[in-house]
Amino acid sequence: MNNRGMIIAGIIIFLCLITFPIWYNVVGGKAAYTPELKIVSKEKQCVESTKYMRSQHMQLLNDWRNSVVREDKRTYTALDGKKYDMSLSNTCLNCHSNKADFCDKCHNYLEVTPTCWNCHVVPEENKL
Amino acid sequence: MKIDRRGFLKIGGLGILGVAVKPVIDVVSKAKLAEASSKKGVLVEKRLAMVVNLKNCKEGCTDCIAACHGVHNVPDIANPKDEVKWIWTESYENAFPDQEHRFIGGGMKGSPAILLCNHCDNPSCVRVCPTKATFKREDGIVMMDYHRCIGCRFCMAACPYGSRSFNWRDPRPFIKKVNPEFPTRTKGVVEKCNFCEERLAKGLIPACVESCKNKALVFGNVEDPNSEVREILRSNYTIRRKPGLGTGPQIYYIV
Amino acid sequence: MFEKALIGSKKYWGLAIGLLAIMGVGAIFYLQQWNYGLGITGMSRDVSWGLYIAQFTFLVGVAASAVMVVLPYYLHNYKAFGRITILGEFVAVASVIMCLVFIIADLGQPTRALNIVLYPTPSSILFWDMIVLNGYLLLNILIGWNVLASERKSVPPPAWVKPLIYISIPWAVSIHTVTAFIYAGLPGRGFWLTAIMAPRFLASAFAGGPALLILLSLIIRRFTKFDPGKDAIQNLGKIVAYAMSINVFFILLEIFTVFYSQIPEHMHHFEYIFAGLGEHGKLVPWMWASVSLAVVSLILLVNPITRRRESILALACVIVFFSLWIEKGFVLVVTGFIPSPLGRVFEYTPTVPEIFITLGIWAMGFLILAILYKIAIAVKEEIEA
Questions:
Q1: Residues C161-186: what's their mean pLDDT?
Q2: Which of C189, C199, C263, C366 is most buried per CB count within 10 Å?
């Protein structure tokens, strides 16, 4: 078979194309940056630990919404026994009032577009 | 018994099928339980309802509509094609087609009647919803979970009262002043009156009832014999919209 | 076998490219609907279902063409239909896929469509419709493909296919029944609240599906070397004649009950389609067109002299198809909402984007059908050569 050259060239082109995003970021100097979150908060402590919130906030918000909307249970008891009103707009955003710096930065970095804001209102004074 | 590879795979496959079927069976059996517990005669401690006294309702007054639509971020889309409404007025004859006749007296002919979701005892919208996005709470409120609604509009076809609106387009540009404490809706979901469940949770009465200066709207628990609604139902003759359909509407009208 | 779909004449590729182009236009309009919302259609607060759901309803009927050839062949050993069962099954596959796509096109939140599966709700007819439609699709793909593959190898189909074929017969009845239940169980919609909704769906399906199958058979005979057979076509013609008669009979039953009982909530809808309400009468010409076409088709189909002439039979089938399309693919759904439960007459006209999205989905269905038929006929030609 004398197609070897063609096949190898094809494989190389394929590999180049598929790894393009990595090269592009390396050359552009944008590789592996971490978004810096600005936390403006009235409280020192979020409802749960930072580690938990970082990885599980979406699950927590899902549980909250099901609990409030479907079961009419609105009070969340945190691990440390503190009680909170389960509300994205009125509890979370009360502290994290800087949606652009807090929510969006990380969501943009990860290319996720949560649909929360299609309905839930970002407090007026902190809107972009 | 000797099991060859083929036989093993068959048994394994059946096992997996069983695991897959289990949740469906669970749901079906749960549905039966739910049906049984909502049967008539079972003691319910709370059943929220409303009495609309059309005698006290002043023509031209839109306080209840403004209050409700303001609190709930209901968009004001002027054209009848895309409009969204939770509480609104309709002529008496259209609201009560069964009661219509040539000689309607008492000033009711052509006069506006306040309409809203009837929060039915036996809601057809809940029955048809394929995702349980609309459901009946234990206190009788027929609720919408806007997160779950897929926008199939089966509930709109099922509602015999025209109480449901669909967001044919993004409602936000049509909300003059957004109430930040209550979410807006997104395009592609159905919405309707929620009996102010978010206010009830804070111990407040529904916004429409609060806003009415003429006491045309009274809200309360009809299971409580000492409640104001029960007192009014006792001392007045009341009618409901299309009671013959068996939906058990919980908005009572004094005409 | 799929490779058969990739080798074809210029005409075949021309058809495929043409259909792809229509699909492309539909996709562009769908993108617009995706961004703006369903407000881009003519649907409204009062008329909350329109062209999409009507097409879905009509196509559930077209999917019946399979059972009308499968039942005589497998239960009564009627050999002439053996040649065309595959044609019926592939029409079923294409039309059920179109049904599902029409439902997705009609959803306000299509990305949440899986909620029907994630939160199964046995009280909802739509939940059951999802099950029967997907089941029917799967059955017809499995049966059609396996029977065709065995035919190609000149061996009998695998034993497990036979029970599936028997299941597919009542299953075909179930898709119509369940789809009719979507409408027939709603309080306050007098136009739909009728126990003969499911029988009507079955009658119109057994007329419309086989009518399409006759037309497709004639086209296949004209353009390929495969002949579905004169007997098969003639007997399908008889099925169409009977089913169409029953369908018209059922509609007359509805008209009797509604107008003799004089119950306004039921009567107003029929007045709207046959005479118009006040100045509102957009559907009146359509409904009378459907009625006239139905009458003409019955004259041509019931009379054996005209039915036996293939060219006239073809014409009658075109007429049946359009008459039923108007009645079931438009009027039946829209009129349920006019007048509204509050007595308001708000008329419905589909918009340009809505029509092009609809055409795009039809083109998709025909493309699927063309590919499946290409495979089936290539196999049949190969066997007969």
A1: 93
A2: C189
